[in-house]
Amino acid sequence: MSDSSHSPAAGHAAEESKFAAYVQIAMLLAVITGVEIAVIGLPFAKWLLVSVLVVLSAVKFMFVIFYFMHLRWDKVFCTILFFIGLILAGGTMWALLQLFSTENSVPLSVAVNTLADLSRLG
Amino acid sequence: MTSQAATGAIDHHHDHTTSTGIPNKKLLMWAFLASDCMFFGTLISTHLIYRLHPPAGNPVPRQIFDIPLTSFSTFILLMSSLMMALAVNAIQKGNLKSMRFSLLTTILFGAIFLGCQVFEFNNFVFEHHMTITNSILGTTFFTLTGTHGTHVAIGVLWLGLMYVRSYKSATGEGLWLTTALHVVALVAAVLLSMKLVLSVVWGLQAHGFSGATLAGVASAQWLVIVGALIAYSALRWFARPAGPVQFDQSNAVDVESMGLYWHFVDIVWIVIFTAVYLLEYL
After folding, report:
1. What's the gap in Å between the CA of A70 and the closest CA on chain B?
2. What is the pLDDT of residue B244?
3. Cβ–Cβ below 8 Å for A82 and B30
4. pLDDT below 70 — which residues of chain A?
Protein backbone atom coordinates (compact mmCIF):
# COMPACT_ATOMS: atom_id res chain seq x y z
CA MET A 1 0.00 0.00 0.00
CA SER A 2 1.32 3.43 -0.81
CA ASP A 3 2.18 5.91 1.92
CA SER A 4 -0.42 8.35 0.66
CA SER A 5 -3.20 6.03 1.81
CA HIS A 6 -1.95 6.45 5.39
CA SER A 7 -1.94 10.25 5.29
CA PRO A 8 -4.22 11.96 7.83
CA ALA A 9 -6.28 13.56 5.05
CA ALA A 10 -6.85 10.24 3.29
CA GLY A 11 -7.70 8.53 6.59
CA HIS A 12 -10.14 11.29 7.52
CA ALA A 13 -11.83 11.08 4.12
CA ALA A 14 -12.09 7.28 4.43
CA GLU A 15 -13.68 7.54 7.90
CA GLU A 16 -16.12 10.22 6.71
CA SER A 17 -17.16 8.03 3.78
CA LYS A 18 -17.61 5.07 6.18
CA PHE A 19 -19.89 7.19 8.37
CA ALA A 20 -21.95 8.25 5.37
CA ALA A 21 -22.07 4.65 4.13
CA TYR A 22 -23.41 3.42 7.49
CA VAL A 23 -26.18 6.03 7.51
CA GLN A 24 -27.12 5.28 3.89
CA ILE A 25 -27.21 1.53 4.56
CA ALA A 26 -29.44 2.03 7.62
CA MET A 27 -31.85 4.11 5.53
CA LEU A 28 -31.82 1.45 2.81
CA LEU A 29 -32.58 -1.26 5.40
CA ALA A 30 -35.50 0.81 6.72
CA VAL A 31 -36.85 1.24 3.18
CA ILE A 32 -36.52 -2.50 2.48
CA THR A 33 -38.44 -3.22 5.71
CA GLY A 34 -41.19 -0.87 4.47
CA VAL A 35 -41.27 -2.68 1.11
CA GLU A 36 -41.56 -6.04 2.91
CA ILE A 37 -44.60 -4.80 4.83
CA ALA A 38 -46.16 -3.44 1.63
CA VAL A 39 -45.49 -6.66 -0.30
CA ILE A 40 -47.66 -8.85 1.98
CA GLY A 41 -50.75 -6.93 0.87
CA LEU A 42 -50.19 -7.43 -2.87
CA PRO A 43 -52.58 -9.73 -4.79
CA PHE A 44 -49.90 -11.99 -6.31
CA ALA A 45 -49.20 -15.72 -6.15
CA LYS A 46 -48.04 -16.92 -2.74
CA TRP A 47 -44.85 -18.50 -4.10
CA LEU A 48 -43.88 -15.18 -5.69
CA LEU A 49 -44.50 -13.18 -2.52
CA VAL A 50 -42.59 -15.72 -0.41
CA SER A 51 -39.66 -15.51 -2.85
CA VAL A 52 -39.68 -11.70 -2.73
CA LEU A 53 -39.74 -11.68 1.10
CA VAL A 54 -36.91 -14.23 1.31
CA VAL A 55 -34.77 -12.24 -1.15
CA LEU A 56 -35.42 -8.93 0.65
CA SER A 57 -34.56 -10.50 4.03
CA ALA A 58 -31.39 -12.00 2.56
CA VAL A 59 -30.37 -8.58 1.18
CA LYS A 60 -30.87 -6.98 4.61
CA PHE A 61 -28.97 -9.83 6.25
CA MET A 62 -26.01 -9.47 3.87
CA PHE A 63 -25.84 -5.69 4.24
CA VAL A 64 -25.67 -6.00 8.02
CA ILE A 65 -23.02 -8.74 8.13
CA PHE A 66 -20.77 -7.29 5.41
CA TYR A 67 -20.97 -3.60 6.36
CA PHE A 68 -22.10 -3.19 9.98
CA MET A 69 -20.22 -6.33 11.08
CA HIS A 70 -17.19 -5.37 8.94
CA LEU A 71 -16.86 -8.70 7.12
CA ARG A 72 -16.12 -6.69 3.99
CA TRP A 73 -12.94 -5.31 5.56
CA ASP A 74 -11.94 -8.24 7.80
CA LYS A 75 -9.92 -11.33 6.92
CA VAL A 76 -11.84 -13.82 4.79
CA PHE A 77 -11.44 -16.44 7.54
CA CYS A 78 -14.10 -14.61 9.61
CA THR A 79 -16.52 -14.90 6.67
CA ILE A 80 -15.75 -18.60 6.25
CA LEU A 81 -16.16 -19.28 9.97
CA PHE A 82 -19.53 -17.52 10.16
CA PHE A 83 -20.83 -19.06 6.95
CA ILE A 84 -20.01 -22.57 8.24
CA GLY A 85 -22.51 -21.97 11.05
CA LEU A 86 -24.94 -20.22 8.74
CA ILE A 87 -24.90 -22.98 6.11
CA LEU A 88 -25.27 -25.70 8.75
CA ALA A 89 -28.21 -23.82 10.27
CA GLY A 90 -29.79 -23.14 6.86
CA GLY A 91 -29.26 -26.74 5.75
CA THR A 92 -30.85 -28.07 8.94
CA MET A 93 -33.83 -25.76 8.50
CA TRP A 94 -34.27 -26.75 4.87
CA ALA A 95 -33.99 -30.48 5.67
CA LEU A 96 -36.47 -30.30 8.56
CA LEU A 97 -38.98 -28.30 6.55
CA GLN A 98 -38.72 -30.74 3.63
CA LEU A 99 -39.11 -33.67 5.99
CA PHE A 100 -42.14 -32.31 7.79
CA SER A 101 -43.92 -30.89 4.76
CA THR A 102 -44.52 -34.34 3.23
CA GLU A 103 -47.97 -35.89 3.48
CA ASN A 104 -46.76 -38.68 5.78
CA SER A 105 -45.55 -36.13 8.32
CA VAL A 106 -48.99 -34.72 9.05
CA PRO A 107 -49.72 -35.44 12.74
CA LEU A 108 -52.54 -37.96 13.21
CA SER A 109 -54.66 -35.54 15.26
CA VAL A 110 -54.45 -32.95 12.48
CA ALA A 111 -55.23 -35.54 9.80
CA VAL A 112 -58.31 -36.74 11.74
CA ASN A 113 -59.53 -33.16 12.16
CA THR A 114 -59.03 -32.47 8.45
CA LEU A 115 -60.96 -35.63 7.50
CA ALA A 116 -63.76 -34.67 9.88
CA ASP A 117 -63.92 -31.18 8.31
CA LEU A 118 -63.99 -32.68 4.81
CA SER A 119 -66.78 -35.12 5.72
CA ARG A 120 -68.84 -32.28 7.22
CA LEU A 121 -68.40 -30.26 4.03
CA GLY A 122 -69.12 -33.23 1.75
CA MET B 1 9.53 -1.26 11.36
CA THR B 2 6.11 -1.87 9.83
CA SER B 3 4.18 0.94 8.21
CA GLN B 4 1.62 0.55 10.99
CA ALA B 5 4.24 1.13 13.66
CA ALA B 6 5.75 3.96 11.66
CA THR B 7 2.47 5.86 11.39
CA GLY B 8 1.34 4.98 14.93
CA ALA B 9 -2.10 4.04 13.57
CA ILE B 10 -3.92 0.95 14.81
CA ASP B 11 -5.05 -1.51 12.14
CA HIS B 12 -8.45 -2.50 13.54
CA HIS B 13 -9.09 -5.29 11.04
CA HIS B 14 -5.82 -7.21 11.33
CA ASP B 15 -3.68 -8.27 14.30
CA HIS B 16 -0.13 -9.19 13.37
CA THR B 17 0.52 -10.72 16.79
CA THR B 18 -1.84 -13.69 16.25
CA SER B 19 -1.26 -16.63 13.91
CA THR B 20 -4.58 -16.01 12.11
CA GLY B 21 -4.04 -12.26 11.76
CA ILE B 22 -7.41 -11.76 13.47
CA PRO B 23 -7.72 -10.39 17.04
CA ASN B 24 -8.49 -13.36 19.31
CA LYS B 25 -11.52 -11.66 20.89
CA LYS B 26 -13.04 -11.06 17.48
CA LEU B 27 -12.33 -14.64 16.37
CA LEU B 28 -13.97 -15.97 19.53
CA MET B 29 -17.05 -13.85 18.87
CA TRP B 30 -17.37 -15.02 15.25
CA ALA B 31 -17.09 -18.67 16.39
CA PHE B 32 -19.77 -18.07 19.02
CA LEU B 33 -22.06 -16.36 16.50
CA ALA B 34 -21.63 -19.27 14.07
CA SER B 35 -22.81 -21.65 16.80
CA ASP B 36 -25.66 -19.28 17.73
CA CYS B 37 -26.83 -19.43 14.10
CA MET B 38 -27.48 -23.14 14.57
CA PHE B 39 -29.22 -22.51 17.89
CA PHE B 40 -31.67 -20.02 16.34
CA GLY B 41 -31.94 -22.19 13.21
CA THR B 42 -33.43 -25.01 15.27
CA LEU B 43 -35.83 -22.69 17.14
CA ILE B 44 -37.09 -21.08 13.91
CA SER B 45 -37.42 -24.53 12.26
CA THR B 46 -39.46 -25.84 15.19
CA HIS B 47 -41.85 -22.89 14.95
CA LEU B 48 -42.24 -23.25 11.18
CA ILE B 49 -42.76 -27.03 11.34
CA TYR B 50 -45.63 -26.65 13.79
CA ARG B 51 -47.06 -23.86 11.63
CA LEU B 52 -47.13 -26.29 8.68
CA HIS B 53 -49.62 -28.51 10.52
CA PRO B 54 -51.37 -26.41 13.18
CA PRO B 55 -53.47 -28.51 15.57
CA ALA B 56 -57.14 -27.67 16.04
CA GLY B 57 -57.89 -25.04 18.67
CA ASN B 58 -54.62 -23.16 18.15
CA PRO B 59 -54.84 -19.35 18.10
CA VAL B 60 -54.77 -17.83 14.60
CA PRO B 61 -51.59 -15.72 14.31
CA ARG B 62 -53.18 -13.21 11.90
CA GLN B 63 -55.82 -12.43 14.49
CA ILE B 64 -53.40 -11.80 17.33
CA PHE B 65 -50.26 -10.38 15.70
CA ASP B 66 -49.85 -6.62 15.63
CA ILE B 67 -47.83 -5.86 12.50
CA PRO B 68 -47.53 -2.07 13.07
CA LEU B 69 -46.00 -2.72 16.52
CA THR B 70 -43.65 -5.40 15.18
CA SER B 71 -42.63 -3.18 12.24
CA PHE B 72 -41.83 -0.40 14.70
CA SER B 73 -39.70 -2.84 16.76
CA THR B 74 -37.89 -3.91 13.60
CA PHE B 75 -37.17 -0.31 12.64
CA ILE B 76 -35.90 0.45 16.15
CA LEU B 77 -33.56 -2.55 16.10
CA LEU B 78 -32.20 -1.54 12.68
CA MET B 79 -31.49 1.96 13.98
CA SER B 80 -29.79 0.49 17.05
CA SER B 81 -27.50 -1.40 14.68
CA LEU B 82 -26.63 1.88 12.97
CA MET B 83 -25.77 3.49 16.32
CA MET B 84 -23.68 0.46 17.28
CA ALA B 85 -21.73 0.71 14.01
CA LEU B 86 -21.18 4.42 14.70
CA ALA B 87 -19.96 3.63 18.24
CA VAL B 88 -17.36 1.22 16.84
CA ASN B 89 -16.38 3.78 14.20
CA ALA B 90 -16.01 6.47 16.88
CA ILE B 91 -13.75 4.48 19.22
CA GLN B 92 -11.62 3.35 16.28
CA LYS B 93 -10.97 7.05 15.69
CA GLY B 94 -10.38 7.59 19.43
CA ASN B 95 -13.51 9.73 19.81
CA LEU B 96 -14.62 8.67 23.29
CA LYS B 97 -17.42 11.23 23.65
CA SER B 98 -19.06 10.19 20.39
CA MET B 99 -18.70 6.50 21.31
CA ARG B 100 -20.44 7.05 24.65
CA PHE B 101 -23.30 8.92 22.99
CA SER B 102 -23.72 6.16 20.39
CA LEU B 103 -23.63 3.45 23.09
CA LEU B 104 -26.28 5.24 25.14
CA THR B 105 -28.49 5.61 22.05
CA THR B 106 -28.04 1.90 21.29
CA ILE B 107 -29.04 1.09 24.89
CA LEU B 108 -32.11 3.33 24.51
CA PHE B 109 -33.18 1.62 21.27
CA GLY B 110 -32.54 -1.82 22.82
CA ALA B 111 -34.71 -0.88 25.80
CA ILE B 112 -37.49 0.35 23.46
CA PHE B 113 -37.36 -2.97 21.60
CA LEU B 114 -37.62 -4.89 24.89
CA GLY B 115 -40.48 -2.64 26.00
CA CYS B 116 -42.35 -3.43 22.77
CA GLN B 117 -41.77 -7.13 23.40
CA VAL B 118 -43.09 -6.89 26.97
CA PHE B 119 -46.15 -5.04 25.62
CA GLU B 120 -46.70 -7.69 22.92
CA PHE B 121 -46.29 -10.64 25.30
CA ASN B 122 -48.62 -9.00 27.82
CA ASN B 123 -51.19 -8.49 25.07
CA PHE B 124 -50.97 -12.11 23.92
CA VAL B 125 -51.29 -13.53 27.43
CA PHE B 126 -54.02 -11.28 28.88
CA GLU B 127 -55.99 -10.23 25.77
CA HIS B 128 -55.72 -13.33 23.58
CA HIS B 129 -55.11 -15.91 26.33
CA MET B 130 -52.13 -17.44 24.54
CA THR B 131 -49.54 -18.66 27.03
CA ILE B 132 -46.40 -20.72 26.63
CA THR B 133 -48.21 -23.87 27.84
CA ASN B 134 -51.75 -23.75 26.43
CA SER B 135 -51.01 -24.10 22.71
CA ILE B 136 -48.29 -25.28 20.35
CA LEU B 137 -48.19 -21.81 18.75
CA GLY B 138 -47.66 -20.25 22.19
CA THR B 139 -44.89 -22.72 23.03
CA THR B 140 -42.89 -22.24 19.83
CA PHE B 141 -43.58 -18.50 19.54
CA PHE B 142 -42.69 -17.57 23.12
CA THR B 143 -39.65 -19.86 23.14
CA LEU B 144 -38.27 -18.36 19.92
CA THR B 145 -39.03 -14.69 20.50
CA GLY B 146 -38.31 -15.00 24.24
CA THR B 147 -34.85 -16.44 23.51
CA HIS B 148 -34.23 -13.58 21.09
CA GLY B 149 -35.45 -11.08 23.69
CA THR B 150 -33.07 -12.62 26.24
CA HIS B 151 -30.23 -12.09 23.77
CA VAL B 152 -31.29 -8.43 23.42
CA ALA B 153 -31.44 -8.02 27.22
CA ILE B 154 -27.94 -9.51 27.58
CA GLY B 155 -26.78 -7.15 24.81
CA VAL B 156 -28.25 -4.12 26.61
CA LEU B 157 -26.50 -5.17 29.84
CA TRP B 158 -23.22 -5.65 27.97
CA LEU B 159 -23.59 -2.22 26.32
CA GLY B 160 -24.21 -0.69 29.74
CA LEU B 161 -21.13 -2.36 31.22
CA MET B 162 -19.00 -1.14 28.30
CA TYR B 163 -20.37 2.40 28.74
CA VAL B 164 -19.44 2.33 32.44
CA ARG B 165 -16.06 0.75 31.60
CA SER B 166 -15.26 3.76 29.41
CA TYR B 167 -15.19 5.93 32.59
CA LYS B 168 -12.55 3.79 34.35
CA SER B 169 -10.14 6.26 35.92
CA ALA B 170 -6.52 6.19 34.79
CA THR B 171 -5.44 6.61 38.43
CA GLY B 172 -7.61 3.66 39.56
CA GLU B 173 -8.75 5.35 42.79
CA GLY B 174 -12.04 4.25 44.41
CA LEU B 175 -12.63 2.06 41.42
CA TRP B 176 -14.90 -0.82 42.43
CA LEU B 177 -17.44 1.21 44.43
CA THR B 178 -17.76 3.92 41.78
CA THR B 179 -18.10 1.33 39.02
CA ALA B 180 -20.69 -0.68 40.95
CA LEU B 181 -22.79 2.42 41.67
CA HIS B 182 -22.50 3.56 38.05
CA VAL B 183 -23.77 0.16 36.83
CA VAL B 184 -26.63 0.20 39.35
CA ALA B 185 -27.62 3.74 38.25
CA LEU B 186 -27.62 2.75 34.57
CA VAL B 187 -29.60 -0.47 35.07
CA ALA B 188 -32.08 1.34 37.35
CA ALA B 189 -32.52 4.17 34.81
CA VAL B 190 -33.26 1.69 31.99
CA LEU B 191 -35.63 -0.54 33.99
CA LEU B 192 -37.53 2.29 35.68
CA SER B 193 -37.92 4.17 32.38
CA MET B 194 -39.31 1.04 30.73
CA LYS B 195 -41.72 0.51 33.61
CA LEU B 196 -42.89 4.12 33.46
CA VAL B 197 -43.39 4.19 29.68
CA LEU B 198 -45.28 0.88 29.74
CA SER B 199 -47.50 2.17 32.57
CA VAL B 200 -48.31 5.28 30.54
CA VAL B 201 -49.11 3.19 27.43
CA TRP B 202 -51.35 0.80 29.36
CA GLY B 203 -53.04 3.74 31.09
CA LEU B 204 -53.74 5.45 27.75
CA GLN B 205 -55.02 2.18 26.30
CA ALA B 206 -57.42 1.64 29.18
CA HIS B 207 -58.73 5.18 29.71
CA GLY B 208 -57.85 7.15 26.55
CA PHE B 209 -55.65 10.23 26.25
CA SER B 210 -56.46 12.84 28.86
CA GLY B 211 -54.81 14.86 31.60
CA ALA B 212 -56.64 12.79 34.22
CA THR B 213 -55.15 9.57 32.82
CA LEU B 214 -51.61 10.95 32.92
CA ALA B 215 -52.16 12.34 36.42
CA GLY B 216 -53.49 8.95 37.53
CA VAL B 217 -50.43 7.15 36.13
CA ALA B 218 -48.13 9.73 37.72
CA SER B 219 -49.73 9.31 41.15
CA ALA B 220 -49.70 5.50 40.89
CA GLN B 221 -46.09 5.43 39.72
CA TRP B 222 -44.63 8.27 41.81
CA LEU B 223 -42.03 5.97 43.36
CA VAL B 224 -40.88 4.86 39.89
CA ILE B 225 -40.67 8.49 38.73
CA VAL B 226 -38.61 9.50 41.77
CA GLY B 227 -36.34 6.47 41.35
CA ALA B 228 -35.81 7.24 37.64
CA LEU B 229 -34.98 10.88 38.39
CA ILE B 230 -32.44 9.82 41.02
CA ALA B 231 -30.91 7.30 38.60
CA TYR B 232 -30.65 9.90 35.79
CA SER B 233 -29.11 12.44 38.19
CA ALA B 234 -26.56 9.84 39.28
CA LEU B 235 -25.75 9.06 35.63
CA ARG B 236 -25.28 12.76 34.93
CA TRP B 237 -22.96 13.03 37.95
CA PHE B 238 -20.88 10.01 36.90
CA ALA B 239 -20.56 11.50 33.38
CA ARG B 240 -18.91 14.70 34.67
CA PRO B 241 -15.36 15.40 33.45
CA ALA B 242 -13.10 13.66 35.99
CA GLY B 243 -9.62 13.40 34.54
CA PRO B 244 -7.98 10.88 32.21
CA VAL B 245 -9.53 7.42 31.69
CA GLN B 246 -8.19 3.98 30.78
CA PHE B 247 -10.19 3.68 27.56
CA ASP B 248 -8.95 4.56 24.10
CA GLN B 249 -8.43 3.24 20.58
CA SER B 250 -6.70 0.12 21.94
CA ASN B 251 -10.10 -0.93 23.41
CA ALA B 252 -11.76 -0.74 19.99
CA VAL B 253 -11.65 -4.52 19.60
CA ASP B 254 -13.72 -4.90 22.81
CA VAL B 255 -16.38 -2.53 21.49
CA GLU B 256 -16.25 -4.19 18.07
CA SER B 257 -16.74 -7.69 19.54
CA MET B 258 -19.73 -6.43 21.49
CA GLY B 259 -20.97 -4.78 18.29
CA LEU B 260 -20.76 -8.11 16.44
CA TYR B 261 -23.04 -9.65 19.07
CA TRP B 262 -25.49 -6.75 18.82
CA HIS B 263 -25.64 -6.86 15.01
CA PHE B 264 -26.18 -10.63 15.20
CA VAL B 265 -29.23 -10.03 17.40
CA ASP B 266 -30.45 -7.68 14.66
CA ILE B 267 -29.97 -10.18 11.81
CA VAL B 268 -31.75 -12.89 13.78
CA TRP B 269 -34.69 -10.51 14.13
CA ILE B 270 -34.59 -9.83 10.37
CA VAL B 271 -35.20 -13.56 9.84
CA ILE B 272 -37.82 -13.84 12.63
CA PHE B 273 -39.73 -10.82 11.32
CA THR B 274 -40.13 -12.45 7.92
CA ALA B 275 -40.47 -16.11 8.92
CA VAL B 276 -42.68 -15.74 11.99
CA TYR B 277 -44.69 -12.59 11.31
CA LEU B 278 -44.88 -11.60 7.63
CA LEU B 279 -45.35 -15.10 6.19
CA GLU B 280 -48.55 -15.46 8.22
CA TYR B 281 -50.16 -12.71 6.12
CA LEU B 282 -49.74 -14.43 2.74
Report:
1. 8
2. 87
3. yes
4. 1-16, 109-114, 121-122
| Nearest CA distance, B78 vs chain A (angstrom) | 7
Number of domains chain A contains: 2
Q: Which residues in chain B have their CB less than 8 angstroms from residue A53's CB?
A: 274, 278-279
Integer Cα distance of A108 and B208 in angstroms: 47
The residue segments making up the domain with residue B220 are 173-240
Which of B30, B44, B67 is facing A78, going by the closest CB pair?
B30
Which of A70, A76, A106, A109 has the highest number of chain B CBs within 10 A, making it the mutation to test binding with B?
Answer: A70
Cα-based torsion angle of the residue sequence B16, B21, B23, B26 in order, rounded to the nearest 10 degrees:
160
Q: Are B30 and A19 inside 8 Å of each other by CB?
A: no
CA distance B52 to B62: 15
The neighbour count for residue B170, using CB atoms within 10 Å, is 10
pTM of the model: 0.89
Instruction: Please count the structural domains in chain B.
Output: 2
- The mean pLDDT of B73-95, rounded to a whole number, is 95
What range defines the domain where residue A22 resides? 1-74
Q: Which of B55-64, B144-153, B197-206 has the lowest mean pLDDT?
A: B55-64
Give the pLDDT score at B116: 96
Question: Do B146 and B257 share a structural domain?
Answer: yes
